[in-house]
């Protein structure tokens, strides 16, 4: 059985948004980030925040590459 995820009157999400960072997210911070992003989406792009799904993704520094190494190694310098 397939379930349809509904928000408001639309049976789909208009904008999935993925926000990635190394160690910047927490339950309390994500509430503030979500509020700020939603306000920006409404004021700047006229997208109803009810139609945005924001997923916060914490990345491990050893899994992020930059300048021929990883962020974990760069943080040691």
From TrEMBL:
**Superkingdom, taxonomy of origin:** Eukaryota
Query: Gene3D superfamilies per the record?
Result: Macrophage Migration Inhibitory Factor
Q: Pfam families, from UniProt?
A: MIF (PF01187)
Which family, according to the similarity comment?
Belongs to the MIF family.
Could you identify this protein by its name? Macrophage migration inhibitory factor 2
């Amino acid at each position: 059985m397939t379930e349809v995820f509904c928000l408001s009157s639309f049976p789909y999400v208009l904008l999935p948004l993925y926000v990635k960072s190394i160690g910047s997210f927490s339950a309390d911070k994500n509430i503030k980030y979500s509020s700020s992003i939603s306000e920006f989406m409404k004021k700047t792009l006229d997208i109803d925040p009810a139609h945005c799904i924001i997923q916060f993704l914490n990345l491990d520094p050893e899994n992020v590459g930059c300048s021929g190494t990883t962020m974990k190694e760069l943080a040691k310098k």
